[in-house]
Amino acid sequence: MGFGVVSLLNAVFRRMFTSAGLRPGSAVVDADDTTIHFWAHPSLLQPPSSASAATASEQQPRPVVVLIHGFGPDPTWQWAAQVGPLSRHFDLVVPTLLFFGASATRAPARSDAFQAAALAALLAGGGHLPGLAASRTVHVVGTSYGGLVAYHLARELHHRGGGAAVGKVALCDSDLCKGAEDDRALAAKGGVAEVTELMAPADTAALRRLMAICAHRPPKYIPECLLRDMLRKYFAHQREEKIALIKGIATGQGFQLVPLPQEVLIIWGEFDQIFPVEKANKLKEKLGEKVTVKVIPNTGHLPQQEDPKLFNRFLLDFLLQPSASDAAANAK
Fold first, then answer.
1. 253 in helix, strand or coil?
2. For 331, which DSSP code?
3. How far apart are CA 238 and CA 40, in angstroms?
4. What CA–CA distance (Å, rounded) separates 121 from 196?
5. What separation in angstroms does the CA of 36 have from each of 96, 225, 274, 317?
6. Per residue in 70-88, pLDDT tens?
7. Angle (CA) 126 30 92, round 5°
8. What confidence category does residue 109 fall into, taking pLDDT thresholds of 50, 70 and 90?
9. What is the Cα–Cα distance from 172 to 142, expressed in whole angstroms?
10. What is the 8-class DSSP label of residue 86?
């Protein structure tokens, strides 16, 4: 029973991705066999033909949005409600982070900054996504752990230069200011000794605790067989590597959070128990004047799943609105 339900949900979410025009792909991005699996719009998977290049000279190519997932099931589960609405306006890239799904590396690094460097290698230069030319604007969106990666990716692409320009950045329930005391508080809230026991559950009891904390209104009943199958498919695989990722998060002591040059949207669930909502305003203070905060009522740590309609409206309004720099240039 559990196997059937998880497999059915997986098929439904993959179908939502293909219906949004996305196709799966993979690329080896460095000498350490760092392999990133991803979903992308077909226009990004092949170089533009001469005919399309002529058309592109008359018509500006569509911007690109990179959606970066957090801990948990595949990105198809985490972004299923977003790919359809976003694909009407943008060409999408949805990577699977290292040590999730089939993405992996022989490199020893386990930080969110290393994850960002791998994604930058995927996106930059046109070698892996030949349709991603230097004229394309790339917006970066990340949720939870993916928001930490998104912050580093925006900086990495900005510093590399010479490639696609970073447009805007959206961080969703992502506490870039977190430290050891926050991990201790979260572990206590989850009834575990270490935060890794909660975020990388080893059994169904720990998975139940995680699901209860993530959602504002978690399901009242989940069959044990369903949890066992979810644990086997999405949490047990490369669990030790996931624990190393949690320990390797490059925030807290010794990490200097600096403002991004891009406009930033912070979206937060009102009742997030992983990263409390007051962290949104603290993060805004750290990231500077180009930051807007939106709080989604009656949601927890997963607002993109708990209220996708409002989440999508906030995100689309932000991404579709001309940037302040563009508006100033047009005013001259």
1. coil
2. H
3. 24
4. 28
5. 6, 31, 27, 30
6. 999 999 999 999 999 999 9
7. 40
8. very high
9. 6
10. H
